[in-house]
Amino acid sequence: MSNKDDRPDMKRREFIGKTVLAAGAASVVPGVLLTVAKAGGENPGVSSDVRYGLLIDTNKCADDCTACVDACNRENGIDVMERPKGQSDDDWNGQRPQWIRKVRLKDMQTGEITNLPMMCQHCEFPPCVDVCPTGASFKRADGIAMVDRHTCIGCRYCMMACPYKARSFIHQNVARQLVNAPRGKGCVESCNLCVHRIDAGDMTTACQEACAKDGHQAIVFGDLKDPDSKLAKLLKKQSSRQIRADLELNTGVRYTNV
Predict the structure, then answer these.
(1) pTM assigned to the model
(2) Which residue ranges make up each domain of the chain?
(3) Rounded to whole angstroms, how far apart are CA atoms 167 and 103?
(4) Could you tell me if 140 and 46 are in contact, meaning their C-beta atoms sit under 8 angstroms apart?
(5) Which end of the chain is more exposed for a tag (fewer CB within 10 A), N or C?
(6) pLDDT (tens digit per residue) in 38-48
(7) With contact defined as beta carbons under 8 Å apart, do 22 and 76 qualify?
(8) DSSP of 184-238, one letter per residue?
(9) Closest by alpha carbon to 85, among 168, 178, 172?
(10) What CATH class does 52-256 carry?
(11) At what angle do helices 206-213 and 67-75 cross, to 10 degrees?
């Protein structure tokens, strides 16, 4: 005669069964179920209906201003990285991550200086993705080029393939970092257009925000495919160019007055 306490709790079993059906379930082996939660309808995910990019007016980029670089460093935790003991200034400056750098171009005939913020150009046909052996370098449907640090093996093929020298390699162990920009020794990283902001619904990048606060308004972020976006309207209104347009990469970052 079985004890009443040994009997299965039918109400509990009924509840579990309904929960599994609601979440979705797949049988792995007899008696073991792998449950998969259904995605909520409120989050449509990444779409190819948009393509994010930047327009940079070099005439508005001040010679002595580093607002975009400083903001990028803060936003992505680059400013909290510590120099290895005994490392020289030259080695540290050459090895620390750099998602944006200021490039100064000089016209040899006129002597005119052009300030050009350089970052990942978020190409439609990114060479970094083509050469990556593990798929760690990839392009999202919305045009943002990224690196999956979980699958990056540190081969640095992407760094060699990038014509813009836009990627950085982490040479040392990292003690301090931010949740939105995790990094580890032996991985490659680069500008991702503040993707954590975009996925949270914020349509500003740290560099654009800092440039605007400094009063320069040299950087505009937006959707290249939306004819009503400020970015698309500016591109239609004035001429712009791609860096190394001859490579036919169709970059998401464009420049005026270069």
Answers:
(1) 0.81
(2) 4-35, 52-256
(3) 15
(4) yes
(5) N
(6) 444 455 678 99
(7) no
(8) -TT-EE---SSHHHHHTT----HHHHHHHHTT---EEEEETT-TTSHHHHHHHHS
(9) 172
(10) alpha beta
(11) 140
